[in-house]
Every structure is written in structure tokens, then in C-alpha cells.
Amino acid sequence: MQNITTATPFKRIVLGLQYDGTAWHGYQKQEDGQTVQDQLENALEQFARVRLATTCAGRTDTGVHALEQVVHFDTELNRDVHSWVRGVNAFLPKSIAVRWAKELAGDPTVNDFFHARFSARARTYHYVLYNNATRSPLVEGRAGFFFRPLDVELMRQAVQPLLGWHDFTAFRAAQCQAKSPVKLMHDIRIERRGDCVIFTITANAFLHHMVRNLVGSLVYIGTGREKPDWLGHLLESKDRHAAAPTFMPDGLYLAQIDYDPKWELPQDSSSALPWF
Which residues are designated catalytic? Predict the structure, then answer.
């Protein structure tokens, strides 16, 4: 009589991750081990007793924070879904936390199955800029700093030409590895909250340093150094050297990843900026 064995089905576990990036060398794994991904996978291994490879929605650079990074991995392990939050957090440093977990049943090899990176429809970043004549140690590492007064209305007038599909080469880092510089810009909002100016930028995807380069050029407009129509000319020029320098990473937050509602991923109420 033939023995029939049934393989334990893989489950795709999705995690919502939040971190203060100040102490870490970005998200992606490196040899020195001082990255968010290294810390997460080490914590997963300590909790699950097996090495689990993770995939994220978007890699962040050194010093960049995440209000909501989305990560997935596949496993045969049977765990209560909430234990992936409590159990993994027990092994993570205080600057990194799993905020929620979701188990997705199905076949991860199917092309249209959920993927943290490829299923993302849009990504939103906040850039927080402390705009005061004197720097504050209370926002050190959590906000960029610029001492000259900024005119928010002038900066708002400048962003319209950036909306829609465009070649964003003028705001692309030299080391960017993206296959194409063409991205869909959904929305750019700029608001002042007390001494902070907050830039909220949503696109289908971003080039390396794209947000920080955009903020740097918008600051030129906010000070009156350049006119609002300069940003559109920069975009058309496709010349990175014509734009402003890259702004510091301190104030950059990966804020939200947009997915099809059919995946029913949890919404984290802490993915706002309550401290600004």
C-alpha cells in the first residue's frame, strides 16, 4: 500500500513594523549587522527557532524612520498570529517594534498572491522639518532643521507640475539602482504645525533620495531663492546637478504603504505623527 504524505502548507505572514532609524544603517541587511532587517531576522530566529527570510515594502536609508514598514515571510510553523507580535518584540531592541501581524492563507507561489513590495500600489513619506532660528535638541534625529523662515504657500504653488507620470531624474541619487526614473506622483501636501513644516509625498514608488532631494529644492523656493515655477523647469531638465543638495535623513519617515483592501491588512493608528 502506497504511503501518502501531505506537506505542511506554507503560510505567508505579514508584519507591520515601526522603527526609529537613528541608530541603524538603513533597513537592508549588511555585513556589520547594524540594520533593521538584521535585527528583525535575528529576533524572528530567536522566537521561531528557525531562520526566516523577510521581504519589505521599501528599503529605507541610514537614519530614516518608519511609522509603517510592511514585511512578509513564509513559514510552515503554526503560531497564533498575535504571538508574532508579542514573541518577536521580546527579542527586538527598543527602537524597533512589530505593531501588527496578519496570516494570509493560500499559495505564495501564485503570481497574484500578496507580496510586500510588488503588491504595494503606493507609498507615502513624511518629511518633518524643524523651522526655527535656533535648533532644538528635543527633535534631534527626528526632524530636519532649517533656520531661515519658510513660506509654505510658495512651496505649495510649486508642486503642481510634479503630479502625474514624470521622469524624476533631476531628483534621483547617482547611486540609484531603479530600472526606470519614471514614477507616478499622486500627491504632495505641505503644512505648518507650529515650528515644524511637514511634507507629505505619495507616489507609486520612489527613486533613491527622491524625497530628500525634492524637499531640498522646495526649501529653495520657500526661502525665495527660487521662484515656484523653477521646480517644473528642474523636472524637465532631468539634471540632478541643477537641483538643490540632498536634505538630511533625520526628518524622513516611511509613513504608509497602500495595498488592495482585499488583503484586509490591519490599520495602525500610531502611523501618524502625534509628536509634531
Answer: 61
Rg of the chain on CA atoms, in Å? 21
Residues in contact with 99: Cβ distance below 8 Å, sequence separation at least 6, in sequence order? 16, 17, 18, 68, 85, 268, 270
Residue numbers in the known binding site for substrate are: 125
CATH number of this structure's domain 11-119, picked from the four choices 1.10.10.10, 2.40.30.10, 3.30.70.580, 3.40.50.10540: 3.30.70.580
Q: What is the torsional sign of CA 88, 92, 98, 104?
A: negative
CA angle 134, 139, 140 (to 5 degrees): 85
Entry pTM: 0.92
Please enumerate, by residue number, every residue annotated as part of a binding site. 125
CA–CA distances in Å: residue 110 to residues 9, 76, 82, 122:
14, 17, 26, 22
Q: Where in the chain does DSSP place strands (E)?
A: 11-19, 55-56, 65-75, 96-104, 122-131, 144-146, 164-167, 182-193, 196-203, 252-258
DSSP per residue over 32-52, as a string? T--SHHHHHHHHHHHHHSS--
Q: Which pLDDT tens digit goes with each residue over 154-166?
A: 999 999 999 999 9
* Residue 34 cell numbers, joined: 547594524
Rounded-to-10 torsion of CA 94, 99, 104, 110: -70
Among residues of the chain, what percentage have pLDDT more than 90? 86
Tens of pLDDT, residue by residue over 3-39, are 443 445 689 999 999 999 999 999 999 988 899 999 9
Q: Which residues pair with 124 in a beta bridge?
A: 202, 256
